[in-house]
Write a structure and sequence with these properties.
- The chain is of the alpha+beta class and about 170 residues long.
- The protein has one domain: Regulatory factor, effector binding domain (Multidrug-efflux Transporter 1 Regulator Bmrr, Chain A), CATH 3.20.80.10.
- It is about 20% helix and about 40% strand.
Length: about 170
C-alpha cells in the first residue's frame, strides 16, 4: 500500500492551471467508475502539453498536473483538469480551460507506491492526515492537485516504486 514519505508546506504565488477539462460525478468516481485516465490518454494522444511547454517563460513547473475543483457547485460533479501550472501571461490555446489559483500556502505530501492507482487512491487521505499531524486543517477545500513530478513519478526507484506529489491549499 502507498505511504507518505515526505510532507512540507509551500508558498504558491498567483498561478493559473491550463489544460483540458472534464466534469465528472464524485459519486461515480467513488463507486469505481473512473474516467479520469481516459482524459489523460486523450491529452497524451493529442499532444496537449506541447502548446504549454513551448511557453518556457510562462511555465511555473514543468510537471503535468491533475487539478480538481468546483465540487461545491451543488450538482455532485467536480472539474478535473489535465494540464500544467503556468504564470499569468501564458497564451491559452483554443479548446483549453483556465482556472485561477490565487497565492496560498499548500500542504504537499509525497505519496510512494507500486503504481498510479496505488498512489492516486491514497494521496488525499494520507496528505490530509499529515496536515492534521502537523496541527493544520483545511477549513474548506477549494481545490486539490496531483503533480506528476519528473523523475519521482516518471522513473520508478530501485524498489520499483513511484512517488506522486499531492497539493492541498491551507488558506
Amino acid at each position: 500500500m502507498a505511504e507518505l514519505i515526505h510532507f512540507e508546506t509551500k508558498e504558491l504565488p498567483d498561478l493559473i492551471v491550463v489544460g483540458k477539462e472534464i466534469r465528472y460525478s464524485m459519486e461515480k468516481l467513488m463507486q469505481g467508475d473512473n474516467r479520469l485516465g481516459a482524459l489523460w490518454d486523450k491529452c497524451f494522444a493529442e499532444n496537449t502539453f506541447a502548446a504549454l511547454e513551448s511557453q518556457v517563460e510562462h511555465v511555473f513547473d514543468p510537471s503535468y498536473v491533475g487539478f480538481m475543483t468546483d465540487w461545491d457547485l451543488g450538482d455532485g460533479d467536480f472539474s478535473y483538469i489535465v494540464g500544467m501550472m503556468m504564470k499569468d501571461g501564458a497564451q491559452i490555446p483554443d479548446g483549453y480551460i483556465v482556472k485561477k489559483l490565487p497565492a496560498c500556502k499548500a500542504g504537499v505530501g509525497w505519496i510512494r507506491g507500486d503504481d498510479v492507482r496505488d498512489v492516486c487512491s491514497n494521496a488525499h487521505e494520507q496528505t490530509t492526515s499529515a496536515l492534521k499531524g502537523h496541527g493544520r486543517q483545511c477549513e474548506k477545500m477549494r481545490w486539490c492537485m496531483e503533480l506528476y513530478n519528473c523523475p519521482r513519478f516518471t522513473t520508478p526507484d530501485e524498489n520499483g516504486k513511484i512517488t506522486l506529489d499531492y497539493y492541498i491549499p491551507l488558506d
